[in-house]
């Protein structure tokens, strides 16, 4: 990549670019108002490009970046006119949060849809969330959802940020294979009614065990707060409340574990229907 100065390339000033990236990583309001987020690492970069994510800016270090496929993608995107900043290893590490800096990152455009524009599709399920205490748990849920071929996540309100750096890192690039929708409980209720979708919530006081339900495609799975559980409005949305059995004295599971169990129960039921 050294010495490339072909037409259509747009090198950026390094210091302002690094400042912009640092703010995207630590300031949610800054991320949201600009509709951007930063990812680093070969897996994230390659998957994002393969999935058609819109790349706003490239960041790379010639000396750190050793992956042939990532280097090839960097060259391609530069030829296509994507703005880029080429930095030293030391400069790259100032914005890297990885244990070992890979030498490649990108500023991507956030991808969140409005629910009236979303078609339910034929995936196994959608997952509805209104709060997640641990960003890492959300990232793990995203990995599971992608693994079973689920459509994605319907986020109620503005509490959850799918582009928080810990979420992005924990998702292991599965983030780019999921649809994210942000809406209100009222608009979700209208959407569910319009498309005649089954809605199943999870709670310790559920009337039936989670793996005894006849799930159909696509099921809308509603997961409550990790401590507070389902809200009254969420319960009103559900046609069925299921429980995950636990021994006496235990009253809750980690959200990512509970959500993963439910998603795989849906897949199992569909395979045997």
What does this structure look like?
The protein has 273 residues and is of the alpha/beta class. The protein has two domains: 14-109, Ribosomal protein L30/S12 (60s Ribosomal Protein L30, Chain: A), CATH 3.30.1330; 113-271, SPOUT methyltransferase, trefoil knot domain (Alpha/beta knot). 37% of the residues lie in helices and 19% in strands. The strands form two sheets. An eight-stranded parallel beta sheet has the order 5-8-7-6-11-9-12-10, with helices on both faces. Strand 7, helix 7 and strand 8 (179-183) form a beta-alpha-beta unit. Helix 6 packs parallel to helix 10 (255-271).
What is the topology?
Blueprint: H1 14-26, H2 28-34, E1 36-40, H3 42-50, E2 55-60, H4 68-79, E3 84-86, H5 89-93, E4 104-109, E5 113-114, E6 125-129, H6 135-148, E7 152-156, H7 165-170, E8 179-183, H8 185-195, E9 199-202, E10 208-209, E11 219-223, H9 232-237, E12 240-243, H10 255-271
Parallel strand pairs: 2-3, 5-8, 6-7, 6-11, 7-8, 9-11, 9-12, 10-12
Antiparallel strand pairs: 1-4, 2-4
Helix pairs in contact: 6-10
């Amino acid at each position: 990549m050294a010495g490339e100065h072909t037409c259509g390339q747009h090198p950026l000033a390094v210091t302002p670019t690094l400042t912009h990236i640092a703010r995207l990583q630590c300031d949610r309001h800054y991320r949201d108002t600009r509709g951007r987020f930063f990812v680093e690492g070969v897996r994230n970069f390659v998957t994002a490009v393969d999935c058609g994510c819109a790349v706003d800016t490239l960041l790379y270090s010639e000396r750190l970046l050793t992956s042939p496929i990532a280097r090839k993608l960097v060259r391609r995107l530069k030829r296509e006119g994507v703005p880029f900043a080429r930095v030293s290893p030391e400069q790259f590490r100032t914005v890297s949060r990885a244990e070992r800096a890979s030498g490649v990152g990108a500023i991507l455009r956030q991808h969140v849809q409005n629910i009236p524009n979303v078609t339910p599709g034929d995936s196994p399920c959608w997952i509805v969330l209104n709060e997640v205490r641990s960003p890492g748990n959300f990232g793990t849920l995203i990995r599971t959802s992608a693994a079973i071929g689920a459509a994605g996540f319907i986020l109620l309100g503005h509490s959850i940020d799918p582009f928080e750096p810990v979420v992005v890192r924990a998702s292991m690039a599965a983030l780019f294979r999921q649809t994210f929708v942000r809406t209100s409980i009222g608009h979700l209720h209208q959407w569910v009614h319009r498309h005649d979708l089954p809605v199943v919530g999870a709670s310790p006081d559920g009337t039936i065990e989670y793996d005894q339900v006849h799930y159909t495609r696509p099921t809308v799975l509603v997961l409550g707060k990790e401590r507070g559980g389902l809200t009254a409005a969420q319960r009103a949305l559900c046609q069925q409340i299921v429980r995950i059995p636990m021994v006496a004295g235990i009253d809750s599971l980690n959200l990512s574990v509970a959500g993963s169990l439910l998603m795989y129960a849906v897949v199992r039921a569909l395979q045997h229907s």
